[in-house]
Specification:
Phosphorylase Kinase, domain 1; Transferase(Phosphotransferase), domain 1; Methylamine Dehydrogenase, Chain H; 7-stranded antiparallel β-sheet; 11 helices
């Protein structure tokens, strides 16, 4: 130990780290009165001539550099035969330590990446190659300055060194076959022990940037040899497949950095720095291209979401692989959501419904071929279809559900103006036949039904049907069938006018947007088979032959196809974000993790929010996490769909949707998780798992094979189940006194069920205009419920007195950034109704016309 010793005029105070070549200490510079870092070569290595040469080279290389993004070298010396280097003392953490907490936001990744690139510019201009760039060698100071560390294996690349030795004689590769650096971040030429230049650092930088935004290594294998093979011949998965909502420009930059052939990479760190600066300023990107080009939210901070959409749009023509080069015309330029868009006037104009900058939904129409649009002046309504004679099919008074409206009223209105005429209630979708008649998706008898003419059922779904479109000759209707009510997974189907159904393509995990090709030979639709919402444009023939028409490095949705083959699409950035607000309604804090954070519970002390993260980085079973309201990094507890916290705050209950289902009890602090297999149940409602107030029993809703769903009581110690309601009766939210459960009845309205036995009692509703609503929490005295009606923004939370049904507004919830917010839900609150955690669904859209697709 050298603590307390004096090296030169540096007094060693404490050890602060260790690296491959030595140990790092905090020291006091007695001459200048400042604190410094002293790196000392370990005694065991001090006699290794190769190590000594590398150590000295680190000093020479770094001392030659004077740049704010490179650690400053102050001095070099030898103490009792052991060399040391003195550098500035840094306070903060390495990038590796930061990445343990999860990937960076796109803003931070661009900022930090730009700083690293600027540091490389300074090094490369002095002919110095780092050769060991990795997250451990990048340091983030407390003021967010990024410093490049450890030029210990740097190589001078000037044609001749100052002492006359050649470049090869200065390399630290002293034995044949020796490779320096860290395998996952090494360039192919390093792994092959070939000569390297500054472009090797650019390759390493690309691997690091990929890890910044995805949280995962770009090149990874089970063994070192496997990782080497990944670097030599593999390609990192698309960033958008690893994490939704990241600007496509990042994928472009990474791909250009990690080309196998150095001639195909960025040719200078200056070009790389410029590319990153354009991402952070304008959302555009310039890539100097050489050689051939290859195929291409942690949560996304929505301050740059519009830039992401702009960057994606710019690259549409560069990265797509249709038969011909498409041409893109941007139609919208404001910030918000485009709900639906259709061609009008035989394809000569565009009609669309949009909500801009948090304002109410409005219908707009383009002016001829101009991108200029004007509001139509119709009441707030969703656009369903436009007839060949320019008559509109609208949905009025609907509840937003993604970009569609449920429980709405179908209405007809002339494009030229006039009051809409109401036709039918409970309509979700509609389309005009070539002869001017309407087909509808009507919710009736607890089914989603495709009807044409209205009243004649052609198809049914236990889930929901949407995107109905007539074929050009009007003898068939194509549509999407989603078998699960709450998911947009499903199939592309077609039916004739007698109800003969054919499934043309199935197995899509997310699908939205459909229309017939102009000649009617194919059905074009946007969908993805993978997780997330990054949909591509596909075509399927009546025989089921499938082909990809268009793929972009972002999510987009087909809206309509004109007779001349032009398509109108929306480029979409989607997320489920989460906020907390306290007694002061103006105090709103973003607690989102990745891109799909779902609020589930607030701790009794009001300091923690329990939530479920279903974004792509979380994996197929979702993550259960907890986060302090001060914005501290989330703590991952386990996986599953989470219910709530135990009364003592020590456990979270989650359900895995396996068959049979499993219940996970996850410790919030120290401890081991416990798992129970519910072998007697076929299915358990993952969102309906709640501790009773004493913490020893858990409410579970599910069903036994061949039976309807009901409510069960599970012993938290043994996992034993006991049914406590009749079949068809589901109530799961326990009252603070442990006597009652609240839940939805068969009609969707709230009811209260006595745990000790007896029939359920409907909650009186003195405000029928609210319709069915959800229970967020009981009041502390067990005499009232805090409730809300799903959908829309802003969202009203009410207090409903159980004895009288008196309904009192409790809080209006509207996210701090209202642009593109379609709905606020779910909502959880404390027993006093003073603190709220809520999720909200947000889509930011840009509308485009695309021509040239085949």
């Amino acid at each position: 130990m050298i603590i307390g010793q004096i090296l030169g005029h540096y007094r060693i105070v404490a050890k602060i780290g260790a690296g491959g070549m030595g140990e790092v200490y905090r020291a006091s510079d007695d001459r200048l009165g400042r604190e410094v870092a002293v790196k000392v070569l370990t005694a065991a290595l001090a006699t290794d001539q190769d190590r000594l040469r590398r150590f000295e080279q680190e000093a020479r290389a770094a001392a030659a550099l004077n740049h704010p993004n490179i650690v400053a070298i102050y001095d070099i010396g030898v103490h009792e035969g052991v060399p040391y280097i003195v550098s500035e003392l840094l306070e903060g953490q390495t990038l590796r330590q930061r990445l343990v907490l999860g990937p960076l936001s796109s803003r931070l990744a661009a900022d930090y990446g730009g700083q690293v690139a600027q540091g490389l510019v300074a090094a490369h201009e002095k002919h110095i190659v780092h050769r060991d760039l990795k997250p451990e060698n990048l340091f983030i100071t407390r003021d967010s300055r990024v410093k490049i560390l450890d030029f210990g294996i740097a190589k001078l690349t000037s044609s001749e060194a100052a002492d006359g030795r050649s470049i090869e004689s200065r390399t630290t590769q002293t034995r044949a076959g020796t490779v320096l650096g860290t395998v996952a971040y090494m360039s192919p030429e390093q792994i092959r022990s070939k000569p390297v230049d500054h472009r090797s650092d650019i390759f390493s930088f690309g691997a690091i940037l990929y890890e910044m935004v995805t949280g995962r290594r770009a090149f990874k294998g089970e063994t070192e040899a496997d990782t080497m093979m990944a670097v030599l011949s593999g390609e990192p998965p698309d960033i958008s497949m690893q994490r939704e909502g990241i600007p496509p420009a990042f994928d472009q930059i990474v791909r250009h950095c990690v080309e196998k052939d150095p001639d195909n990479r960025f040719q200078s760190a200056r070009d790389l720095a410029f590319a990153l600066s354009t991402v952070t300023t304008s959302g555009t990107l310039f890539l100097p291209r050489r050689g051939k080009k290859r195929r291409v939210f942690k949560w996304l901070p929505w301050a740059v979401a519009a830039l992401a959409l702009t960057a994606a749009a710019i690259f549409l023509g560069m990265r797509l692989r249709p038969a011909s080069q498409p041409i893109y015309q941007r139609i919208t330029f404001e910030r918000g959501t485009v709900y639906a868009a259709r061609f009008s006037h035989m394809g000569q104009g565009i009609l669309y419904a949009a909500s801009w900058n948090g304002r109410p939904l409005q219908l707009y129409s383009s002016v001829g071929q101009s991108p200029l649009t004007r509001p139509l002046g119709l009441p707030s309504a969703g656009l369903l279809a436009v007839s060949s004679s320019d008559e509109l099919a609208l949905v009025l008074h609907g509840t937003p559900d993604r970009r569609e409206f449920t429980h709405g009223i179908l209405a007809r209105a002339p494009l030229a103006g006039g009051t809409p005429r109401e036709v039918l209630d409970a309509v979700r979708a509609a389309d005009w036949s070539p002869h001017g008649d309407l087909a509808v998706v009507h919710f009736s008898e607890n089914q989603s039904r495709l009807e044409f003419p209205i009243g004649k059922v052609l198809a049914r779904s236990a889930g929901w049907i949407d995107n109905i479109r007539f074929s050009p000759d009007g003898d068939k209707i194509a549509y999407m069938d989603h078998p699960i009510n709450w998911a947009d997974a499903g199939s592309v189907c077609v039916t004739d006018l007698e109800g003969n159904k054919t499934v043309l393509s199935s197995g899509w995990q997310s699908e939205d947007g459909l229309d017939w090709s102009p000649g009617g030979s194919e059905i074009w639709f946007t969908a993805t088979r993978g997780s997330g919402s990054r949909r591509a444009l596909w075509a399927v023939s009546p025989s089921g032959r499938l082909r990809e028409v268009l793929s972009v490095p972002a999510s987009f949705t087909l809206q309509d196809i004109a007779p001349d083959g032009r398509v109108v699409i929306t480029l979409d950035a989607e997320r489920m974000a989460m906020e907390w607000t306290g007694q002061d309604p103006a105090d709103k804090r973003d607690l989102s993790w990745y891109d799909w954070s779902i609020a589930k519970d607030i701790s009794l002390d009001g300091q923690w929010v329990l939530f479920e993260e279903s974004g792509e980085p979380a994996g197929p079973n979702s993550d259960v996490a907890i986060r302090k309201i001060d914005g501290s990094p989330p703590i991952r507890l386990g996986e599953g769909t989470v219910g709530d916290l135990s009364p003592d705050g020590k456990w979270a209950v989650a359900v895995l949707p396996t068959r049979p289902p499993r219940v996970n009890l996850l410790p919030v602090g120290p401890g081991q998780a416990r798992q129970f297999t519910l072998s007697s149940l076929e299915y358990a409602d993952a969102g309906e798992a709640h501790f009773l107030p004493e913490g020893k029993q858990i409410i579970i809703c599910g069903n036994e094979p061949g039976h309807q769903a009901r409510t069960f009581l599970m012993d938290a110690g043994t996992g034993h189940l006991r049914a406590i309601t009749a079949e068809g009766v589901r109530a799961a939210l326990p009252s603070p006194d442990g006597k009652y459960l609240a839940g939805a009845g068969p009609d969707g309205h709230l009811q209260v069920f006595p745990i000790g036995g007896g029939p359920p009692t409907p909650v009186p509703n003195n405000n029928p205009g609210l319709g069915p609503y959800n229970a967020s929490q009981w009041s502390a005295d067990s005499k009232a419920l805090f409730v809300y009606r799903t959908g829309g923004a802003p969202l009203e939370v009410y207090r409903v007195e159980l004895a009288t049904g008196k309904t009192t507004p409790q809080r209006t919830l509207l996210p701090r950034d209202p642009a593109g917010v379609i709905m606020v839900a779910p909502v959880v609150t404390n027993l006093q109704g003073t603190e709220f955690a809520y999720s909200y669904y947000q889509i930011l859209s840009v509308l485009y016309i695309v021509s040239g697709l085949r």
